[in-house]
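Open question from group meeting: does this chain pack into something compact, or does most of it stay loose? Before anyone orders reagents, we agreed to write out a predicted structure and look at it together. Recording both the input and the output here so the notebook holds the full record.
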Amino acid sequence: MLKFPWKSLIISLIFLHGASVSAESILLKSPAPISQQEVEEKIKTLPLDMTWSTTDKENGNKSAIRFEKKEGKTVMRIQFENGFPKMLAPFENSFTLSMAQGKKVWIFVYGAPVINVLTSSTEALPSLEEAMGTVHVPRILEHQTPQIKTLIEIAKLIRDKRCVFYTGAGISAGVVPTMPQLMEKLQLVNRRFLAILHAFKNPALYVQPMDDFYKACLYGKPTLAHIAVRDIVQKKNWGLLTENLDLLHQRSGIKPLHHEGSNWLKSNVSEEDLKKIDYVIAVGLASDESGFLGWYKTANPKGRIVAINLQQPSYLGEEDLLMTGDVQQLLPLLREEVF
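Structure tokens returned:
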């Protein structure tokens, strides 16, 4: 009579159960490697659409300027919703008029045929914040005094802890223009509506800075800080999340996590995951625009943020840590200390 190996089955089930329970969130493990061939393929599909919009407080009319990378070219799209600006009345024939849910939408495209740019929906274009996705109320604090720490002190605190790097534009500065620098070049910091009108009359002056920005995002070389972060996360099995559009992390050889839309982060990361993180190390991150740090601190009040930045950002509380200085100098030194 054959005997069924019940003991072996039970041991196998326990093993499988344990494996499923201990499966780590994508945020709690080292990012996967990526080949340069994969990076080149990603260039073809990387979404680099950027939109700035404004609404007239008096009449509710909406204006937007959008830049896209299509077939290697930078395309500019200007859109007016509800009403057409009187200042551009002589040029109305240069725009394509569409109707969407009872609203009039005027669209002007520079750099590609209109038919290749228009989508099935001509509703108001999504802003940068909407495209990235806000996961929580952003963490903005005032009159806080975070703990100022030296590099040696920071390294000692995080060396044996579970950490996640969170990088912002500052880590790519010098290779890729920061958002304030880009907006300054596009004259979009103040009086945005007038800047959009100016862009229609002088489209080449606006497309060129965006073309330079896109090239830097797609083909720029990783900085010393990118290389140091890569080495640290691979050695320590730490996570990496970035707010950046560029491919500098990928060109260092790893795939960082990115927001990639409004619900991506919350679909892939749970509050239980956040509770397991001892430190979020924010590198070159000026503010908590997406609300990730606010979400982290709400889910894990005991968790701490370590900011490595030129100056104190607004998301740090009294319990958090700050190390000021050039990230290109500090990250390679931190790498030596945490190993």
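Observations to bring back to the group:
Residues 240 and 256 are 5 Å apart (CA to CA).
The chain is about 35% helix and 20% strand.
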